[in-house]
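Narrative of activities, Objective 1.

The group set out to show that a structural description can be obtained from nothing but a protein's sequence at a throughput compatible with the screening campaign. Below is one input-output pair from the validation batch, recorded exactly as produced.
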Amino acid sequence: MDRDVKRPYHAPGRAARAAETRRRLLAAAHTRFLADGYVATTVAAIARDAGVAEATAFAAFGSKRALLLAAIGAAVGGDAAPTPLLSRPEWRAMLDAPDPADALHRFAAFTAAGLARGAALIEVARTAAAVEPELAALVREGGRSRWADCRALAGALHARGQLRADLSMEAATDLLWVHCSSELWHLLVTERGWTGEQYQTWVAEALTAALLPGR
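Output recorded for this entry:
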């Protein structure tokens, strides 16, 4: 046997502990940012709430800004895994749905669930961005990323010939982007008192009417 051959090292226990640490930090960050706002919150306080050392929190995320954005991603995505939306099973099912109305209803359901968990935290980021230029840049980047995710759905519908003939893929993307925005959720749910179910139904019906032919 060749003793010089290096084999990959697997440490499932270590990976599981790291994942649990990440989960605790993101849960603590979510609670702390909502309670104290972005400016008053410290990484030390988040680490203390999570039961880990401050150095561990910095090693895992690098900065308070990154912690906030990761907490938003975890809230919207529904778990602490750093998995892009396009790689999540819900999005794959949405993109692959043969019935365009079903795809849009899946989009509405995912949007409503994600915003129910994450809209308040997104509002924390947007408020702080007014006085934190670096955070403002990251918030804008988040908006561009969300637009790209919406473009993937518009592209899937366009590729199957399911969009209205008079509607460009860019216009379809914009409509999807607006309807999954935290700003719209804030206006209708937070300000006007709609339920999440009402919001989901309205988004599904509005997008079906706006994007699909003969609706």
